[in-house]
Amino acid sequence: MNILVIGSGGREHALAWQCAKDDKVQHIYVAPGNAGTALEPKCQNVILDNVSGASEHSAVIEFCQSNAIDIVIVGPEAPLVTGIIDACREAGIQAWGPTAYCAQLEGSKTFAKEFMAQNKIPTAAYQGFTEVSNAKAYVDKQGAPIVIKADGLAAGKGVIVAETIEQAHAAIDDMLADNKFGDAGSRVVIEQFLRGEEASFICMVDGENILPMATSQDHKRAFEGDTGPNTGGMGAYSPAPVVTTAVHDKVMAQVIQPVVDAMKAAGHPYTGFLYAGLMIDNNGNPSVIEFNCRFGDPETQPILMRLQSSMVDLVVQGLAGKLPSEANWDSRPALGIVIASKGYPETSSKGDVIAGLPEIHAKDSNHGRSSNITDTDDNSLAAVKVFHAGTTFAHGKQSDNVDADVVVGNDKEIVTDGGRVLCVTAMADSISEALQTALVVTGAISFDGAQYRRDIGHHAITRESI
Ligand code: AMP
Ligand code: GLY
Asked: Which of its termini does the chain have fewer beta carbons within 10 Å around, N or C?
């Protein structure tokens, strides 16, 4: 079986790594991938035109047809929002993800908010604006704290949690008047500030059946103590103890099932990963902060580290409308620390040489583990895997077309190539142990301007110590 994974982040590295474990899988192409996916056994990076964003997906379709691709797994939201699944289906290619219609749940906050109101899904009160003066008047009336969001896709950064009226006004000016978020910010959604603890609730959906993934929690803020600007996510762990069985049941009944039912009733059955970003209040009641139409990043990394079922089997079952209601998980928790490059999230730095990376298994030696840091996927006591995101090779290409060899070998320096660079993920007997293990490996990795949080999992660790 041959698989094409679309995307270049840690999520895609984790998806490819999981799929590679299945003996049925011969080859995994990752478009465009990163240095980590280039080095992963069975994996090869390819560059395809128009993958992320453009509505025309002919390069993907042609590639699938000429390389006997059995399944396409789409990682990021941009190609989903522009209809890559619709295009693949029309061409008779099996592709895992939601259609463009369903992906509006992530692609437009206004669509998501109206959908939640129509289907009585709990979420913060809100109003949408295109005019600066109306938006500011609304903020003045509501008071602070208040949340200002760019309507379109902004890679997790188009959200300002304003502590004061002045900050809210400044965010409105940035988005509506100064166009700081481009088209994504030409309309803003202003939302009631929700209190509680966040959790990520991610499912696989086949139009009808729902398979919840293990629960997780992400850390969106850049700095320790959950301070600083919002990012795409600085670390995550699974499971999230805040999602008790009672909370889990409420989320399924009040959030996930209504989405699946409403999409089906609208003639657009939801397929693919469905991600509800939740705020759980003190009484265990969930409110939806956002929907994503994909797996989370970095949540995928710890979640998939725990997955014992075959990812490939689950996707095949999902494509056939036969998802099971449960998957098998390692009972041990897993935790991932994101190492970001200089300037993230405002900017990012490319070309900084990364030192101290554990050696990834070279293609020709599936289980070579010669470094003193173990980059492993077996069930040793504390398993560690360094998933790559914004990385590339300093000299030499990591991919070009399918016939080209990828670069493998230690003589090729790996350098930063984006904001979030790596996600060091560890699985251990407790969250605190997973954090300590991940910190040791993270501390051995260095590059100019590297930044990471040392407090990933702090909510769960506080609970563990009670
Ligand atoms: P979003 O991109 O909508 O998920 O927002 C990014 C982050 O901003 C969330 O993960 C929360 O930490 C925070 N946030 C968004 N909306 C709200 C809200 N209504 N109340 C409190 N925090 C929020
Ligand atoms: N980690 C948050 C997201 O994937 O949107």
From this structure: C
**β 350-353/414-417 pair status:** antiparallel
Pocket flag, ligand 2, residue 158 (CB < 6 Å): no
Cα–Cα distances in Å, from 260 out to 102, 114, 209, 295? Answer: 10, 16, 8, 16
Between the alpha carbon of residue 223 and those of residues 39, 80, 451, 454, the distances in Å are 31, 30, 9, 9
Task: Write out the two tokens for 147.
Answer: 């949340």
**By C-alpha distance, which of 260, 262, 282, 281 is closest to 272?**
260
43-45/27-32 β-pairing: parallel
The per-residue pLDDT for 365 is 36
Cis link prior to 41 (omega < 30° from 0)?
Answer: no
Cα(159) to ligand 1 centroid in Å equals: 7
**Both tokens assigned to 373:** 């840091």
Pocket test for ligand 2, best of 81, 106, 218 (most atoms within 8 A of CB): 218
How far is it between the farthest Cα atoms of the chain? 64
Helix, strand or coil, per DSSP, at residue 188 = strand
What is the distance in A from the centroid of ligand 2 to the CA of 271?
19
Torsion of Cα atoms, 203 then 204 then 209 then 214, to 10°: -40
- The answer to whether 105 and 249 have CB atoms below 8 angstroms apart is no
Distance from Cα 191 to the centre of ligand 1, integer Å: 9
Q: What is the pLDDT of residues 369-384, one digit of tens each?
A: 333 344 554 444 469 9
Q: Is the CB of 174 under 6 A from ligand 2?
A: no
* Ligand 2: residue whose CA is nearest its atom 3: 296
Q: Could you tell me how many residues make up the chain?
A: 466
Report CA 192 to chain centroid distance, whole Å.
25
CA atoms of 39 and 332, how far apart (whole Å): 27
Three-state DSSP class for residue 147: strand
Strand partners, 188: 129, 150
Tens-digit pLDDT profile for residues 57-107: 899 999 999 999 999 999 999 999 999 999 999 999 999 999 999 999 999
Strand partners, 221: 230
Q: Residues with Cβ within 6 A of ligand 1? A: 124, 147, 149, 156, 159, 161, 191-194, 198, 220, 230, 277, 289-290
Supply 338's token pair: 């994101």
Taking the C-alpha atoms of residue 432 and residue 437, their distance in angstroms, rounded to an integer, is 9
